[in-house]
Write a structure and sequence with these properties.
CATH topology of the largest domain: D-Maltodextrin-Binding Protein, domain 2
Number of strands: 12
Helix content: 40-55%
Structural class: alpha/beta
Distance between the termini: 50 Å
Order of helices and strands: HHHEEHEHHEHEEEHEHEHEEEHH
Radius of gyration: 23 Å
Strand content: 15-25%
CATH class of the largest domain: Alpha Beta
Shape: elongated
CATH superfamily of the largest domain: Periplasmic binding protein-like II
CATH architecture of the largest domain: 3-Layer(aba) Sandwich
C-alpha cells in the first residue's frame, strides 16, 4: 500500500469516476491510475469501485467504508508534512484562502496586507467562489481557510467559527425618495430591487424579512458582487440591498446608503477550517488578525468541537 494508490482512489471519487480527469490531476496516465487502484484492491481483497466494463461507475459497499479511511490517511500525511515545515521553516510556506467576493473585496484586504508585512516569506493564494464552493475547496484541501457568511456552518466536516456580525444597507442615488422619512419594508417593496443571488451574503435574511411581512418584492437583478449591484443602482435600474461593509462613502460618491439593520436579521461571517487539519503557527496568526476573538486556544477548542466563540460586531 502506498500514498499514490490512496490518492488515486480519492481523486477518482472527486472527479466523478472519470479516469482521464484523474490522470490529468495526478500528472500520470490513465492506465497508471487503473493499475494503482487494482493493486490496492488486490492487497485489501475487496473491490472498491463498481465497474461497467472498463468504466468505474461508483463505490461498492466496501469502497464506501474504505473512502473515509483513505481521506484520513491522506490528511494525516499532509499534517505530518506541515509539522515538519513548522519546525524547519517557521516563517515560510504557503497559505491558501477561499472566500466569497464580499469577504475578499471588503473584509480581507487590510488583514492580508498586514500579514504580508509580518510573514513576507509566506506565499498567499486567494480563491473566490460561492459559499458552497468555498466549503468544497476546504473539504478537498485546495484551501486552508475559508471565509463566508452562508453555508459554512452546514458542513459537519468543517469547524466554522463566527468572526463578526454585520447588517445590510439600502443604496440609492442622491435625492431618492427613500432618503426621506422612515425606511420600511413596505416602502422598499414599492421599488425594483437589486441584491445578492440566493445563497450569497445574507440573502436568506432579506427573503425571510419580506416573507414575514407578507410582501413580494420585485427583484429585477441579482448578483454575487456588491460592486455589480451598485453599478446597476447608479444606472437607475432599482434600489440596492448590500452588506454594509460593501459601501464606502468616499468611493461610492454617486450613491447614498441607508442603514437597514432594523429591517433584516443580523448576519454572521464565519471562518472555517477542515476538522483534523494541523495548522501551522502563521495560520493561527492570520486567523487572529482577521478575528481577534479567534485566538489559538479558541480555534483549537473549536476544532475539537468544544463550543462556539462569540462573534464580534464590525
Amino acid at each position: 500500500m502506498n500514498f499514490q494508490q490512496l490518492r488515486s482512489v480519492r481523486e477518482t471519487v472527486r472527479r466523478g469516476f472519470n479516469l482521464t480527469e484523474v490522470a490529468a490531476a495526478l500528472h500520470t496516465s490513465q492506465p497508471g491510475i487503473s493499475r494503482q487502484i487494482r493493486e490496492l484492491e488486490d492487497e485489501l481483497g475487496i473491490e472498491i469501485f463498481v465497474r461497467a466494463g472498463k468504466r468505474l461507475t461508483g463505490l461498492t459497499p466496501p469502497g464506501e467504508s474504505v473512502l473515509p479511511i483513505v481521506e484520513r490517511l491522506l490528511l494525516d500525511s499532509d499534517n505530518l508534512r506541515r509539522v515538519g515545515q513548522e519546525f524547519s521553516a517557521q516563517t515560510s510556506g504557503r497559505l491558501s484562502i477561499a472566500a466569497t467576493h464580499s469577504q475578499a473585496r471588503y473584509a480581507l484586504p487590510a488583514v492580508v496586507r498586514d500579514f504580508r508585512q509580518l510573514y513576507p516569506q509566506v506565499v498567499l493564494s486567494l480563491h473566490q467562489g460561492s459559499p458552497r464552493q468555498v466549503a468544497e475547496m476546504l473539504l478537498t484541501g485546495e484551501a486552508d481557510l475559508g471565509v463566508a457568511t452562508e453555508a459554512l456552518a452546514h458542513y459537519v466536516q468543517l469547524a466554522a467559527m463566527p468572526c463578526y456580525r454585520w447588517t445590510h444597507s439600502v443604496v440609492v442615488p442622491p435625492g431618492h425618495e427613500l432618503l426621506q422619512g422612515h425606511l420600511s419594508l413596505q416602502r422598499l417593496a414599492r421599488h425594483p430591487i437589486i441584491t445578492y443571488e440566493t445563497g450569497y451574503t445574507g440573502r436568506i435574511h432579506i427573503d425571510e424579512a419580506f416573507a414575514r411581512a407578507g410582501l413580494k418584492p420585485s427583484v429585477v437583478l441579482s448578483a454575487m458582487d456588491a460592486d455589480v449591484i451598485k453599478t446597476y443602482v447608479e444606472l437607475g435600474m432599482g434600489v440596492g440591498i448590500v452588506a454594509s461593509i460593501a459601501f464606502d462613502a468616499e468611493r461610492d460618491r454617486s450613491l447614498r446608503a441607508i442603514d437597514a439593520g432594523a429591517l433584516f436579521e443580523v448576519n454572521v461571517t464565519r471562518l472555517a477550517v477542515r476538522r483534523g487539519t494541523w495548522l501551522r503557527g502563521y495560520v493561527y496568526a492570520f486567523i487572529e488578525a482577521f478575528a481577534p476573538t479567534l485566538t489559538r486556544a479558541a480555534v483549537e477548542r473549536a476544532l475539537e468541537g468544544e463550543g462556539e466563540v462569540e462573534a464580534a460586531s464590525p
